[in-house]
Amino acid sequence: MIIILLGPPGAGKGTQAERLMRECGYIQLSTGDIFRAAVEEGTKLGQKVKAIMDAGKLIDDATILEVIRERLMASDTNAGVILDGFPRTLVQAEALDAMLADMQRAVDRVIEMRVDETQLAERILKRATESGDSRSDDNMEVLQKRLAVYHENTAPIIPYYRERGKLSVVDGMASIDKVASSIRSILDAEEAKCP
Ligand code: AMP
């Protein structure tokens, strides 16, 4: 089972992905987390992407795809994978489909977490003050940039999945529990019941 959580920064993708991981035994693949860990560890990859992440820009598709390919091959992904923060461009979405086809797999469901963007700033700033490990890209200026990048590069993948009959939409402004139960109903309909 391969599920994609889609939505602008602050939509709650990470929170829902962690929950599905905890409750359903799925593996969460968050490209943001992977790259933040690389920055933290000071690896070559981390050094390469730090300034890009801090500016709220996108890391190039080739770098992202290399990391995803490795993770998808290496992980024990049989129970299910939740992709959080990937794909973020049409090139990435198409490459993911090709990569999965090679593995005789496919994206099962894409869940768009729709949010009121005027309220996003509040959420992001709250995350910045509450989070123990604060993110260097959680501030107003970078948020505006990340939202612009979302609209320009990531939103176009929504019709890509809609046309393929893979898109479901949930109200990302509802409570964490409500969003989680909407996601669970969508997955139940896919016969991907949480054990
Ligand atoms: P996130 O935690 O998903 O918001 O990602 C944080 C940052 O990591 C983004 O603002 C980008 O700089 C980078 N990043 C994460 N995932 C991707 C991706 N799929 N494509 C390009 N850049 C990404």
- Ligand types: adenosine monophosphate
| Extended strand count | 5
Largest sheet: 5 strands, parallel
Using only C-alpha atoms, the radius of gyration works out to 16 Å
Q: Into which percentage range does the β-strand content fall?
A: 5-15%
Low-confidence stretches: none
- Terminal-residue CA separation: 13 Å
- Helix percent band: 55-70%
What structural keywords apply?
9 helices, 5 strands, 195 residues, binds adenosine monophosphate, alpha/beta
List the helices and strands and how they pair.
Elements: E1 2-6, H1 13-24, E2 27-30, H2 31-41, H3 44-54, H4 61-74, E3 81-84, H5 90-102, E4 109-114, H6 120-130, H7 140-154, H8 157-163, E5 167-171, H9 176-189
Structure overview:
By secondary structure, the protein is of the alpha/beta class. The chain has 9 helices and 5 strands. Strands 2-3-1-4-5 form a 5-stranded parallel beta sheet, sandwiched between helices. Helix 4 runs parallel beside helix 5 (90-102). The chain starts with a strand and ends in a 6-residue tail after the last helix. The model has no long low-confidence stretch (mean pLDDT 90). It binds adenosine monophosphate (AMP). The site of adenosine monophosphate has 17 residues, from helix 2 and helix 3. Adenosine monophosphate (AMP) is lined by residues 9, 31-32, 35, 52-53, 56-59, 64, 85-86, 88, 92, 137, 146.
